Amino acid sequence: MKKEKLEVKNIKKTFGTIYALNNVDMEAEKGLITGLLGDNGAGKSTLIKILRGVYRPDSGEIYINEEKKVFKSPRDAIREGIQCVYQDSTLIEELNVSENFFMAEEIIKSYLGGLVPFVDFERERKTAAEFLSKMGFYYDVNRQVKYLSGGERRALAVMRAFYFQPKILLLDEPVIALSEVAREKMFKILKDIKKTCATILVTHEVDLALDMCDKLVILKTGKVTFKGDASKISRKGCLKCY
Predict the structure, then answer these.
(1) Among 50, 128, 163, 175, which has the minimal tally of Cβ within 10 Å of its Cβ?
(2) Quick one: pLDDT at residue 113?
(3) Domain annotation for the chain: domains and CATH numbers
(4) pLDDT digits (tens, 9 = 90+) for 113-127
């Protein structure tokens, strides 16, 4: 079975005279959750935007399965199998669950030999409901997203990304502001997801990183201050690097 792997080597990014990232190295691979930990301004968001193709690094390389990749846009990153779930989840409140689930990836049916394409809403509803229930989420797929709780929205965004079988899944603060019940459910999801793709969990929460992650990369003012097994660092040691 192919072992999906992401490698970031010597990434630098400046904004004017400010080093947002300074020779950053990190790896992530299928079967593990790699935590990207750091306070506000540490460089986490800049690194994620580089991996998403939003920013171009000033120098350094990105490899997926040992092949060098250059992302000129977010679409380039998506084509290479990188999916991202942001903290705000980018769901559209006025659309229902199934419409959000297939947003920008609609299931199309055609008439007249492909001359007249239509979105197959019925198939989208059926497919979304089946996949979500399989994963333990029993949504009314006709319900508008604005009526979902914060935990339900976050789970829907993660499940949507997971459905499209990413090679690398980037999760930006996936449990922030969630209830304890919702957090526990999200933890279970992440443990299942890491079996299928390389998973990077971006957070500023030390306890979350130590509880959920197999590997840790700690950033401080754009530099890596720790990289290794999460089990080899204590909360006290983590805070010294943080």
Answers:
(1) 163
(2) 66
(3) 1-81+166-242 (3.40.50.300), 93-164 (no CATH)
(4) 667 788 999 999 999
